[in-house]
Design a protein that fits this description.
Blueprint: E1 6-12, E2 21-27, E3 30-36, H1 54-59, E4 68-71, E5 74-77, H2 80-98, E6 103-107, H3 115-128, E7 133-135, H4 137-140, H5 142-152, E8 160-161, E9 168-172, H6 176-179, H7 189-198, E10 202-206, H8 212-216, E11 219-221, H9 228-241, E12 254-255, H10 257-264, H11 269-276, H12 280-292, E13 297-300, H13 302-305, H14 310-323, E14 333-334, H15 379-384, E15 393-397, H16 401-404, H17 408-415, E16 420-424, E17 437-439, E18 449-450, E19 460-463, E20 465-466, H18 479-490, H19 499-515, H20 527-534, H21 539-550, H22 557-561, E21 567-571, E22 587-588, H23 592-605, E23 616-619, H24 635-638, E24 646-648, H25 650-656, E25 663-667, E26 672-679, E27 687-689, H26 704-708, E28 735-741
Parallel strand pairs: 6-7, 6-15, 9-10, 9-13, 10-11, 12-22, 15-16, 16-17, 23-27, 24-26
Antiparallel strand pairs: 1-2, 2-3, 4-5, 4-17, 8-14, 18-20, 19-21, 23-28, 24-27, 25-26, 25-28
The chain binds iron/sulfur cluster.
Iron/sulfur cluster is lined by residues 13, 15-16, 18-20, 47-48, 50-51, 180, 187.
C-alpha cells in the first residue's frame, strides 16, 4: 500500500454500549471520514455524533503517547523502563510491609469497552490479590447485578427488552434517546422505540424529568426521585389484587411467587402514592396495561440503580416481567446468547452456586463486599483512615473516580495522600494528575476490538471483531502488555519482566478450566495441543479466539476476521431453563437477601413524603454528546451551548429568585458548588438536574478542550455516606440539596 493510498476500515464503535458499526476512510495514515457502516449486521448504518470522533481521539494532542513519572513533584515524560522500574521499586515493598490489601484497585467504565481491559484486568487483580477492589459498577449498576445473580444465577444474566418485537415497553430511569441504551445493547434505540409506536404498540417513560425519550413516548409519568421501588411494588400488588398474574410458559421454572404476593401486600397504590408522587389510579392503570399487552417488557437503568432502594427496584422490574408472563418470550424480556464469554452458556445448566454477598466487609465502615468488590463510596475513607489494612497505594485503570465517585471532593483529597498512585490512562485528568506513574494504553484505533462485555446484553445475537486500523505508535506497549507487566511487577518479578509470561499463564488457565468441564468442546483436551491450534496468535486475540471456539456457536476469530460487518446469529430465542445457574435450577423470584431488604422499604412507607420543605432533590442527566468525563476533550462533542447547567422548574426558580442564565449556589451535606441556571419545565417541581463527569478546571489537568468547557463536578454534592444498603451502590438520584442565588459567584 502506498503512503497516500485511501483505504476503508470497519470498526465497532467503542464509545458506548450500542456497538454500532463504523466505516472509516483512511488516507496518509489519518482518518479522513467516519460514517455508519450500512452493511453492519446490527447497526445498518446508524451512527451518533460520538461515533464520528474516533479519529479525533486518535489525533488528540493531549492523548499521551508515552508514560509519565512524577519527578520533583511534577509529572514528566519518561521511558517505559523508567516507569515500570518506578512501580517495581515502590509497589512490592508496600505489599511486604503492609499486606496485599494495602494496594487498592479502581477499574473504570471504559475497561468494559476494550478487550484487553476485560481480559487482562483480571490478570492484574489475581496478581495483587487485594480485597480492596473498587469499580464503576458500584456507581451505577451493582443493584441490577445482584438482582440478576439472585434470580437467575449469575451477575451478568440480565433479561433485556426485546424492543424489535414488543408491543408495550415500560422504561424507568433510562434515557436511551441520549444514552443509546445501557445493559441492553442495540444500535439506534430511538429508531427501535419509534417503531414500537409505528406498529401500534406503546411505550411509557417513568422519570422525574421529561427527558428526550419521555418527549417521544406515548406517555410520560413523572415520579419523585428515588421512589421506583415503591411504584413497582405497588404495581406488583395490583397484579395480585386484581387477579392479573399469569406466568405463561415460564411458570414451570419459577419459585417464590407466593412469597412475592405476601411481600407486596402492604404496598397498595394508596400507600406509595405520596412517596412516588403518582396517583393510585395511574399506578393501577400501568399494571393493567402491562398485564393486558400481547407482549411487554419492563426496563430500568441507571436511575433505578442509583437510589437507596436500587436493588429492590431492579428486582421488581424482573418480577413484573415474570408475573405478566413476559420473561423469556419474544417481545418480552429475554436472555441473549452471546458467542463468547457468557457465564450462563458455560458449564452444566440449571445447577449453580449460591450467590453469597458480604463475604468480607470494608475495614472502616463495614460495608459489604459484592462479587469481590467493595463499594466505591468507601474508597476515600479506606485511604485516609490510619490503621492496619489502610490503603496506601492505588492502581486505576481507565477510571476517573475523582469525578465519578460519590463524595468526590473527599476522594480528591484522599488521592493526594497516597504513598503510590499508578494509573493506566491516556489523559492527565482529575484523577491521574495525582499519579506517581502514568501508563498510557494505545489509541483504540491501534488495537483490536470485540465487545465481549456488551454482547452479553445484546438485543440480537451478533459477533463482530475489528482489527487494528493503525500499527502501534513507536515504542507503544499494548494495554494487555501494560496490565501483564504490572501483574508481574506486583509479584516481585521486576520492571523488565516479560508480559508474555503472564499472558501464557492466563491462556493456560482458561484452557485448563475448559478441559475439566464436561460440557466444553475442549473437555479432556491437552493444553499444549490447544495452544498449537491457536498459534501464532498471542494476547487478547488468542484469548478471544479460544473463547469463541468454546462458545455456543463454535466460531473462530478467523471466521470473524473474514466478516468485517459482523456475523448475525439471529434474534433472541427462549432459553429457560438452560440459562439458569441458580442452586435450585429455577428462577428464584423471592431470594432471601432481597426479601429481607423489603423491611427497610416498608419502614420508608411510614411518614409518607418526608422531604424537608427547604430542599430540592438533585438528579443527573445524560447528553448524546457525552459518555462520562473522558469524552469532554473532543472539540466536536464539547462545542456548542453549555451543557453543564442546573436545570430547575420555573416555579422553584421564581420562589428562589433564580433566573435563566444566572448562577445558583447548590449545597448538600457533602459539598457545594456554583452552577449556571437553566430554567426548564422539563424537570418536575421540587427536582433539579445537573449532569455528571464535569469539573475540568483543576490544576494540572492536561485536557485543553475540556478545560475550556470545564463545567462543575456534580459528585461534589453526592454523599459518600448515602448508599443502597444491600448493594453498597451510591445514591446519586434524589440527593437533597439547597439552592440559592449566587450572584457574587456568577460565572463569566
Ligand atoms: S450510539 Fe454509541 S456505539 Fe453508536 S456511534 Fe454513538 S457512541 Fe458509538
Amino acid at each position: 500500500m502506498s503512503a497516500s493510498a485511501t483505504t476503508t476500515a470497519f470498526r465497532t464503535c467503542p464509545f458506548c454500549e450500542a456497538t454500532c458499526g463504523l466505516e472509516l476512510t483512511v488516507r496518509d495514515g489519518a482518518v479522513t471520514r467516519i460514517r455508519g457502516d450500512r452493511d453492519d449486521v446490527f447497526s445498518r448504518g446508524f451512527i451518533c455524533p460520538k461515533g464520528t470522533t474516533l479519529g479525533q481521539l486518535h489525533d488528540d494532542p493531549d492523548r499521551l503517547r508515552g508514560p509519565m513519572v512524577r519527578r520533583d513533584g511534577e509529572l514528566r515524560p519518561a521511558s517505559w523502563e523508567e516507569a515500570f522500574d518506578g512501580v517495581a521499586r515502590r509497589l512490592p515493598p508496600i505489599v511486604q510491609r503492609h499486606g496485599r490489601d494495602a494496594v487498592a484497585v479502581y477499574l473504570g467504565n471504559p475497561t468494559v469497552h476494550n478487550l484487553s481491559g476485560l481480559l487482562y484486568g483480571r490478570v492484574l487483580l489475581r496478581a495483587l490479590g487485594t480485597r480492596n477492589l473498587f469499580t464503576a459498577s458500584t456507581v451505577d449498576q451493582r443493584p441490577k447485578e445482584i438482582s440478576s445473580a439472585l434470580l437467575f444465577g449469575t451477575m451478568l444474566s440480565h433479561p433485556v427488552p426485546d424492543l424489535d418485537r414488543t408491543s408495550y415497553l415500560l422504561l424507568l430511569g433510562a434515557n436511551p434517546y441520549e444514552s443509546n441504551g445501557s445493559l441492553a445493547t442495540a444500535p439506534d434505540w430511538p429508531g427501535r422505540l419509534r417503531r414500537i409506536r409505528e406498529r401500534g404498540g406503546r411505550f411509557v417513560v417513568v422519570d422525574p424529568k421529561r427527558t428526550r425519550t419521555a418527549e417521544h413516548a406515548c406517555e410520560h409519568v413523572p415520579i419523585r426521585p428515588g421512589a421506583d421501588a415503591h411504584l413497582l411494588l405497588a404495581m406488583v400488588h395490583t397484579l395480585f389484587a386484581e387477579g392479573l398474574v399469569d406466568l405463561g410458559a415460564a411458570a414451570a421454572f419459577v419459585a417464590g411467587v407466593d412469597e412475592v404476593e405476601r411481600l407486596a401486600r402492604d404496598f397498595t397504590p394508596e400507600a406509595v402514592a405520596p412517596l412516588c408522587g403518582i396517583a393510585p389510579a395511574t399506578i393501577r392503570r400501568l399494571a393493567r396495561e402491562l398485564a393486558a399487552a400481547p407482549s411487554a417488557a419492563v426496563y430500568g437503568r441507571t436511575g433505578t440503580c442509583t437510589q437507596a432502594f436500587g436493588t429492590i427496584a431492579s428486582w421488581m422490574i424482573d418480577v413484573l416481567n415474570v408475573l405478566t408472563g413476559n420473561l423469556d418470550r419474544p417481545g418480552g424480556a429475554m436472555f441473549p446468547k452471546p458467542a463468547a464469554g457468557a457465564p450462563n452458556t458455560a458449564g452444566a445448566p440449571r445447577y449453580g452456586r449460591k450467590t453469597r454477598l458480604g463475604r468480607w466487609r470494608s475495614r472502616v465502615r463495614g460495608l459489604p463486599e459484592t462479587f469481590g468488590e467493595l463499594p466505591v463510596a468507601c474508597l476515600a475513607e479506606e485511604i485516609e483512615t490510619p490503621g492496619e489494612g489502610q490503603v496506601r497505594a492505588l492502581v486505576t485503570v481507565a477510571g476517573n473516580p475523582a469525578l465519578s465517585a460519590p463524595g468526590s471532593g473527599h476522594l480528591e483529597r484522599a488521592l493526594g495522600s497516597l504513598e503510590l498512585l499508578v494509573c493506566v490512562d491516556f489523559y492527565v485528568n482529575e484523577t491521574t494528575r495525582h499519579a506517581d506513574v502514568l501508563l498510557p494504553p494505545p489509541s483504540p484505533l491501534a488495537r483490536g476490538h470485540y465487545d465481549l462485555g456488551f454482547y452479553l446484553f445484546s438485543l440480537r445475537n451478533v459477533a463482530n471483531y475489528s482489527a487494528p486500523v493503525f500499527p502501534p505508535e513507536p515504542g507503544q506497549l499494548d494495554e494487555w502488555q501494560i496490565l501483564c507487566k504490572l501483574a508481574l511487577v506486583a509479584q516481585g518479578l521486576g520492571g523488565d519482566a516479560d508480559p508474555a509470561l503472564a499472558d501464557e499463564a492466563a491462556i493456560r488457565t482458561l484452557i485448563d478450566r475448559a478441559a475439566g468441564e464436561p460440557s466444553s468442546p475442549f473437555h479432556g483436551r491437552r493444553t499444549d495441543d490447544v495452544l498449537a491450534e491457536l498459534a501464532p496468535r498471542t494476547g487478547p486475540e488468542r484469548m478471544l479466539d479460544f473463547m469463541l471456539r468454546a462458545g455456543p456457536y463454535r466460531l473462530t476469530l478467523d471466521a470473524l476476521v473474514e466478516q468485517p460487518h459482523g456475523v448475525d446469529l439471529g434474534p433472541l430465542a427462549p432459553r429457560l431453563p438452560e440459562v439458569l445457574r441458580t442452586p435450585s435450577g429455577m428462577v428464584e423470584l423471592a431470594p432471601e437477601p432481597l426479601v429481607a431488604d423489603v423491611e427497610r422499604l416498608r419502614a420508608s412507607l411510614v411518614g409518607g413524603d418526608r422531604q424537608d420543605g427547604g430542599t430540592l432533590l438533585l438528579i443527573g442527566r445524560r447528553h448524546l454528546r457525552s459518555n462520562n468525563s473522558w469524552m469532554h476533550n473532543l472539540e466536536t462533542l464539547a462545542r456548542g451551548r453549555a451543557r453543564c447547567t442546573l436545570q430547575i422548574h420555573p416555579t422553584d426558580a421564581a420562589r428562589l429568585g433564580l433566573v435563566d442564565g444566572g448562577a445558583a449556589r447548590v449545597s448538600s451535606r457533602a459539598g457545594a458548588l456554583v452552577a449556571p441556571v437553566e430554567v426548564s419545565d422539563a424537570v418536575t417541581a421540587g427536582v433539579v438536574s445537573l449532569p455528571h463527569g464535569w469539573g475540568h478546571d483543576l490544576p494540572g489537568v492536561s485536557m485543553a478542550v475540556a478545560r475550556a468547557h470545564p463545567g462543575v463536578n456534580s459528585n461534589l454534592l453526592a454523599d459518600d455516606e448515602r448508599y443502597d444498603e444491600l448493594s453498597g451502590n451510591a445514591v446519586l438520584n434524589g440527593i437533597p440539596v439547597r439552592v440559592a442565588p449566587a450572584e457574587a459567584d456568577r460565572p463569566a
